[in-house]
Every structure is written in C-alpha cells, then in structure tokens.
Specification:
By secondary structure, the protein is of the alpha+beta class. The chain is built from two helices and 13 strands, in the order ββββββαββββββαβ. The protein has two domains: about 70 residues, Outer Surface Protein A, domain 3 (Alpha-Beta Complex); about 80 residues, Ribosomal protein L6 (Outer Surface Protein A, domain 3), CATH 3.90.930.12.
Length: about 180
C-alpha cells in the first residue's frame, strides 16, 4: 500500500467537503476548489478525515492512489492557508511594477514586458526586484511563477534574469585563457 496514499487528510474546522461521484469540491475561508479525480479511486469522508482508497494493486491504481491523496491534501491546504512563490530580479536596471492587474517587467529587452496573471492568482511587488505570486491552487501558483521566470531565464555567465527566491545558480567561468596566450 502507498505510504502517502494511505494517510488520511485531516479536514480543519470551517472547511466544507462535498463528494459527488469522482468530483470533489473543497470550500474554505480563502475560496473554493473543485477537481475531478480518476473514477477508479474512492474518496470518502469519515469523522473529519478524507480517506483515499484504490480497488486493486495494479500499477496504474498504485500510481493514482498517492497522487490523488496529495492533490486532495493540496486542495485542503489551499483553501485554508493558500500557497505562494517568491521571485527575484537580478541585473542592472531590472525592475518590476504592478499596473492595475498586470505585472510590467523591465528586464533588459528593448521594451517593457507585460504579464497578465490568470484568474485566481494575486501578484504583489515588493520594492522593485521582488515578486510574490500567491493563490489557493498550488498547480496554478507554480505554473504562473514558472511562466514569469521563463520571460528571462537567469544567464549562465552573469546570473542576470528572473530567478526563484533562494535559488542557487551555477555560473560558468568566462574566457579565462584569453589573456594567457596573447603575449606569446
């Protein structure tokens, strides 16, 4: 049995869960999430806990068991606490600002780049170089942060670009042998 799949998901007070066939709706203080799960996976609520079970031990059911439990736990965490990703801009003249709902980035291109976040995502800018992406759907928060990072991936030589907060970059060395052979 899957170690992750067999752990029950605790439903905190104030969170409502509706199970209708293979569709689960979780509603909490931050919002409402709905997801369709695989029809073979059984989800039931017992005394304030959600229990995920699988019908057989074949490979696909074992894979779906842990996945379904993790997705369900992320839904419950999202409507209670929410999720966030932090990004940093590094480079001379690189800056971000929020204009209305859009994020405007000046990151070394000849023009400012505008990014329109999807519905359900809140973007805030701290200072000029720190961007915070927040929302209740973990997948959507991660995908939005990845799309913003993809606008200008950090350079391999100088490290200039959009990176995740705390991300360690491995910078390549420059042309070290350029001056050594010049005198010969």
């Amino acid at each position: 049995m899957s170690r992750i799949g067999r752990m029950p998901v605790t439903v905190p007070a104030g969170v409502k869960v509706k199970i209708k066939g293979s569709e689960v709706t979780v509603e909490g203080s931050k919002g409402k999430l709905t997801r369709e799960f695989h029809p073979d996976i059984n989800i039931k609520e017992e005394s304030g806990k959600l229990i995920v079970s699988r019908p057989t031990d074949n490979r696909q059911h074992r894979a779906l068991h842990g996945l379904s439990r993790s997705l369900l736990a992320n839904m419950v965490d999202g409507v209670t606490k929410g999720f966030e990703k932090n990004l940093e801009l590094s480079g001379v003249g690189y800056r971000a600002q929020k204009t209305g709902d859009k994020l405007t980035l000046q990151i070394g291109y000849s023009h400012p780049v505008e990014f329109d976040p999807p519905k359900g995502i809140d973007i805030t800018v701290d200072g000029n170089t720190k961007i915070r992406v927040a929302g209740i759907d973990k997948e959507l928060v991660g995908e939005t942060a990845a799309e913003i990072r993809r606008i200008r991936i950090p350079d391999a030589y100088k490290g200039k670009g959009v990176k995740y907060a705390g991300e360690k970059l491995r910078l390549k060395p420059g042309k070290a042998g350029k001056t050594a052979t010049k005198g010969k």
